[in-house]
Amino acid sequence: MPGTMSYGKALLIALDQLINALGGGWPDETLSSRAWRWDLAGVRAWPRRFIDALFFWENGHCRSSYESERSGRQRPPELR
Questions:
Q1: What is the number of other CB atoms lying within 10 angstroms of the CB of residue 77?
Q2: pLDDT tier at 6 (50, 70, 90 boundaries)?
Q3: How far apart are CA 71 and CA 32, in angstroms?
């Protein structure tokens, strides 16, 4: 995949999206993005805090994931 994300990262995102879909979320959204939306909407904050703590080296992981989803950065270049 020249010029795109690594194969490993693509598989991790696909697994993340599968888990999110199995949990009743949108099939093309990651758990992190969903957690950010929940926190933003006042639904629940603990998933975002938990996920952000897991990714402690990445400041604002869930927000970044949400922004990535909104901008379509995970789509193939031909679909952006």
A1: 9
A2: confident
A3: 15
